[in-house]
Amino acid sequence: YIKTALTEVYTRDPEYNDYIMGRTPAKRWGLPEDFRGAVIFLASRASDFVTGTSIVVDGGLLGK
Questions:
Q1: Do 31 and 9 form a contact (C-beta atoms < 8 A)?
Q2: CA dihedral 41, 5, 58, 17 (to 10 degrees)
Q3: pTM to 2 decimals?
Q4: What is the DSSP secondary structure assignment for residue 49, as one 8-state letter?
Q5: pLDDT value of position 46
């Protein structure tokens, strides 16, 4: 769950916000800036041999 202008209404809903905080090990909403590392990696030569995989940027949600 990424905090943007489109999701701001959900971040202000106490019940929904508590749900996200309780499910996300990072205990915060993601920010667009959180994708920087993955984007830089994928745009660089360091990822030339990376194929057929997912890079998950979710604050630990899928691993919980």
A1: no
A2: 160
A3: 0.81
A4: T
A5: 96
**Is residue 62 predicted with pLDDT exceeding 80?**
yes
Residue with tokens 């800036």: 33
Question: Sign (positive/negative) of CA torsion 53, 41, 30, 23?
Answer: positive
Please provide residue 30's backbone torsions phi and psi, each rounded to the nearest 5 degrees: -75, 160
In tens, the pLDDT along 11-52 reads 999 999 999 999 999 999 999 999 999 999 999 999 999 998
CB count in 10 Å sphere of residue 11: 14
Distance CA 18, CA 3 (A): 14
Phi then psi dihedrals of residue 2, to 5 deg: -110, 130
Query: What is d(CA 2, CA 34) in angstroms, rounded to the nearest whole number?
Result: 9
